[in-house]
Amino acid sequence: MSCARAEQRLVFNPGLVLLVQDEVLVQGPKVLVTGATGLLGRAVCREFQSNGWMVTGTGYRRARPRFLRCDLTDEDAVRRLLQEYKPDVIVHCAAERRPDVMERHTDAAVSLNVHATSMVSKEAAVCGALLIYISTDYVFDGRNPPYGEDDCPNPLNMYGRSKLEGERETLRHCPDVVILRVPVLFGEVESVMESAVTSLWQKVQEATEESCPLDHCLQRFPTDTRDVATVCRKLAERARQRLTFFRESHGSQDSHGKSAGWETALVKIT
Ligand SMILES: NC(=O)c1ccc[n+]([C@@H]2O[C@H](COP(=O)([O-])OP(=O)(O)OC[C@H]3O[C@@H](n4cnc5c(N)ncnc54)[C@H](OP(=O)(O)O)[C@@H]3O)[C@@H](O)[C@H]2O)c1
């Protein structure tokens, strides 16, 4: 997306100084959102779009017609996508996040949650994009909440293990990655079963007078996808400002001769 910005300049003529206002077209920075067809990805796309970013979203089965279709488990497709598009920022939302599907189709799910994440990270490093990786509170065992950024993960199921493995892959290729470990999400759904929060409605509908299969001891912290999307956008903007500052004050190198990077962050949002 490009937007018009007013720029003022002084024009000096003999005996006359003029203040001239020009309209200049400014191209917004580019963000690539994987999993753009999903519950969180849709909110992330909307958030960046409405704040002047050029957004490219990718999906898989639901991609067309609004988004690019890219199977992230296909290494060549990921490489082509990133090399053609060259985003400034990547928000990597795509994942298999249903623990039961994960257990039943482990190889396919690991391929998406770990190998595709590794490939996205590798290509992010090549094109110098800031990577924001969406992880989960399932990396913890839940025995000693609340958890901080430095607490030791101990995932109890395949889903949590694959997301933690994904985190490690992002750190291996992009040491400056931003990892967000988000709790259960709610937001605008395409069907009530899309979110663990709204699917409660279905369970209540199906309940009989005698029973309703709900967990009565689990404590969770549902989080609005719009809030996560805003955090992603603000982190991206803050990191971009810092990079611009580094580039302007040190060229592309810092005082120790290393390339100026994004600030490493593992951020807790609850
Ligand atoms: N939902 C939650 O409560 C929750 C909680 C904590 C963390 N998270 C994390 O948040 C992120 C987003 O979750 P979500 O709820 O938005 O997930 P979602 O609604 O299930 O969406 C998953 C996304 O992954 C895409 N995808 C699936 N297979 C793919 C493939 N082979 N290649 C490319 N894309 C593929 C899907 O595309 P198509 O649908 O077009 O096939 C979809 O856009 C995930 O990383 C998840 O681990 C979610």
TrEMBL record:
Keywords: One-carbon metabolism. One of its GO terms (molecular function) is methionine adenosyltransferase regulator activity. Pathway: Amino-acid biosynthesis; S-adenosyl-L-methionine biosynthesis; S-adenosyl-L-methionine from L-methionine: step 1/1. Residues 30-243 form the RmlD-like substrate binding domain. One of its GO terms (biological process) is S-adenosylmethionine biosynthetic process. It comes from the Eukaryota. The keyword Nucleus does not apply. GO terms for cellular component: methionine adenosyltransferase complex. Belongs to the dTDP-4-dehydrorhamnose reductase family. MAT2B subfamily. Heterotrimer; composed of a catalytic MAT2A homodimer that binds one regulatory MAT2B chain. Heterohexamer; composed of a central, catalytic MAT2A homotetramer flanked on either side by a regulatory MAT2B chain. NADP binding increases the affinity for MAT2A. Regulatory subunit of S-adenosylmethionine synthetase 2, an enzyme that catalyzes the formation of S-adenosylmethionine from methionine and ATP. Regulates MAT2A catalytic activity by changing its kinetic properties, increasing its affinity for L-methionine. Can bind NADP (in vitro). This is Methionine adenosyltransferase 2 subunit beta. The lineage of its organism: Eukaryota, Metazoa, Chordata, Craniata, Vertebrata.
